[in-house]
Design a protein that fits this description.
Oligomer: single chain
Helix content: 25-40%
Largest sheet: 8 strands, antiparallel
Shape: elongated
Strand content: 15-25%
Number of helices: 17
Distance between the termini: 66 Å
Radius of gyration: 27 Å
Length: 625
């Protein structure tokens, strides 16, 4: 912490002229104001710690220099933004609020007036007027309902409540903001505008990175609210507990790095400090405490130091009970995430699948998957980088940067990312039982300009994960299965096809990425890929084409795929038989003495019913001879 405080002393206090940008395009949105607002906001707690720990006024003097200089800026927003209240504005508000609270007793009356006046006029007022106040509001949760809404409202609200000793309307504004934050958390989505709900049993559709910032800011605001105004108008306990479990479900412990599922613009090995804030706030979830304790690489080279919650709430974080999550799988159907693993021990196996909305920070990656094995992200997502990179729009958010199937080299429409995909991907048919773990991704919607049907089935049984892509296109063409993986990986393509290593570039030829490409031509507009992830290197996987299907065997596990199940005539029967098994399902599974079916109503062995239901199910049962 002292090292961070010392580094904060060397941060530049910018002149506003250095932050202006007169050009057009993306940069005009914020201009260069983030160069000032971010260090100012993020370093203020370090300066406060340096002062209160050492008593050296140099830390206060640096904080005061920041606050007085930025209070006198003409504006706290980029020229290209609609209105005057944006993320930059929120950062300035947060930095001012924290600095004012930390050093309130040391500032002169004149300095307090300058800071509060500047914060209100350039920060609090535009944020409240544009985001939540009746009569002036210009934003809705449908237009800016993702992380921007909670960030902008939270930054303004934190400043309003902490400056309420000199700001007459501060408490009233904070109370309004707190009630509206409840509405944001409870937002159920909007089908007309294709907006997802902001909560899926704790999961947040923009992923771990964006949840981190908005939740951290909310907790700071909630602490200040309770101190100055009183109890919250609602209970946030259950909501935050579910959020905490989402983080722990996404964690993969390894002796190589601390991995967290990186879907949607997130770094895959970045520790989420929100876990510390949540525990310090009183979110008593043992699984979250396990995440913190098991993240042993956060202190490796490049780590930016112990965080304030660890100092002021050490016992809450480190001394109370910790435990691994109860379930080895997690399913967030509304946002389209599924997670399966075989253990919470280091270097185990973990599969993550995403098939949901494409908009904002959610990439054009319907049906993509990643695999962690032997301590590394063996099959990975190349799009886990900062979205300010030149290659972001041109390549990293596109289908070509993910583990998906292209049609004649094409993926989802590039407009989907900025304008949203009207038909989103879906994830369903989730089952987690002994011998059968399954989920199905329906990629048809986002790829509907090419496909009439694309279902990707994931079936984990025994030591293998079978992936079955069932595709029907509008016209005959070439299907290409992309795989981004480490050189030594457990993936095997079983369908006979053309395989080649491809080097893919973004539109500016600046970001080459290598991936394997497996290609087949459709026949009668139909095409299939059968592939497998072999989790145990010592076990051989055998593949055989059989009448109207195929079978994949490894050890005591066999998976049968019924090609008759893809018939477009819905009324047509698709009963098939394999090695004494009779089923109408898409897939049949033998796992030791247990037999299962994927989307079937019949499963018989040697004439004896194992599963017999009027409607199709995905299930597995013990076979009694």
């Amino acid at each position: 912490m002292l090292n961070n405080a010392a580094k904060a002393l060397s941060e530049t206090v910018f002149d506003e002229s250095e932050l202006r940008y007169d050009g057009e395009g993306y940069q005009a949105q914020h201009e260069y104001y983030f160069k000032a607002s971010n260090p100012f906001c993020f370093k203020m707690p370090d300066l406060a710690f340096g002062y209160y720990y050492t008593g050296d006024k140099v830390y206060f003097e640096k904080a005061r220099e920041f606050m007085l200089a930025y209070s006198k800026f003409e504006k706290w927003h980029g020229r290209g933004w609609l209105g005057k209240g944006e993320l930059v504005t929120s950062r300035f508000c947060e930095g001012m609020a924290l600095g004012y609270e930390f050093f309130r007793e040391m500032l002169s009356e004149e300095e307090k007036d300058i800071i509060v006046k500047g914060t209100y006029e350039k920060g609090i007022l535009p944020l409240f007027e544009e985001w939540i106040l009746p009569g002036t509001r210009i934003h809705a949760m449908e237009t800016m309902g993702h992380n921007w809404w909670s960030d902008c409202v939270g930054g303004g609200a934190l400043a309003a409540v902490l400056m309420s000793d000199r700001l007459e309307c501060g408490k009233e504004l904070a109370e309004k903001a707190m009630l509206d934050m409840y509405q944001w958390a409870a937002y159920k989505g909007n089908q007309i505008d294709a907006r997802p709900a902001n909560d899926d049993n704790g999961g947040y559709w923009e992923g771990n990175h964006y949840f981190t910032k908005l939740a951290e800011l909310y907790i700071k605001f909630a602490v200040a609210y309770k101190k100055i105004i009183g109890e919250l108008p609602f209970s946030d306990k259950e909501y935050l507990e579910k959020r905490a479990r989402f983080i722990s479900n996404c964690f993969y412990p390894s002796d190589n790095a601390d991995y967290l599922i990186p879907f949607c613009d997130a770094g895959e090995t970045e520790f989420r400090n929100i876990a510390l804030y949540m525990l310090a706030y009183g979110v008593d979830v043992p699984e979250l405490r396990w995440y913190v304790k098991a993240s042993k690489h956060r202190f490796d080279k490049g780590y930016d130091g112990v965080k304030l919650p660890e100092i002021f709430a050490y016992s809450e974080i480190y001394e109370k009970e910790s435990k691994v999550p109860e379930s080895l799988s997690a399913y967030y159907g509304k946002m389209g995430w599924a997670i399966f693993r075989d253990s919470y021990e280091e270097n185990s196996n973990m599969l993550a699948v995403r098939c949901g909305v494409t908009w904002e920070h959610c990439h054009a990656d319907a049906g993509t998957f990643i695999l962690y094995r032997n301590g590394v992200n063996e099959i990975y997502d190349p799009g886990t980088v900062f979205y300010g990179e030149n290659s972001y729009i041109g390549y990293l958010i596109t289908s070509k940067a993910h583990n998906v199937v292209l049609y004649n080299g094409n993926g989802q429409d590039k407009r989907d990312f900025l304008q949203f995909a009207r038909l989103k991907g879906e994830l369903f048919n989730y089952v987690d039982k002994e011998g059968l773990r399954c989920v199905t991704a329906d990629i048809t919607g986002p790829m509907s300009r090419w496909y009439r049907r694309h279902l990707r089935h994931f079936v984990w049984s025994g030591n293998m994960i079978v992936i079955y892509d069932d595709i029907e296109s509008h016209e005959d063409g070439t299907l290409t299965f992309l795989l981004h993986a480490q050189e030594n990986n457990c993936f095997k393509m079983l369908t006979p096809c053309k395989a080649e290593m491809q080097t893919v570039y973004d539109e500016d030829k600046e970001h080459p990425v290598q991936c394997m490409a497996y290609s087949v031509d459709t026949n009668g507009c139909k095409g299939k890929f059968v592939s497998v992830l072999c989790l145990d290197d010592s076990k051989e996987v055998c593949y055989a084409e059989i009448k109207d299907g195929c079978k994949i065997t490894s050890g005591e596990t066999t998976v049968y795929i019924n090609y008759l199940s893809d018939d477009p005539v819905a009324a047509k029967n698709c009963i098939n038989s394999f090695d004494g098994l009779v089923t109408d399902g898409i897939m049949a599974v033998k796992s030791g003495s247990r037999y299962g079916v994927v989307n079937g109503s019949i499963l018989r062995k040697n004439g004896k019913s194992i599963i017999d239901t009027p409607a199709r199910v995905t299930d597995i049962k013990e076979y009694e001879k």
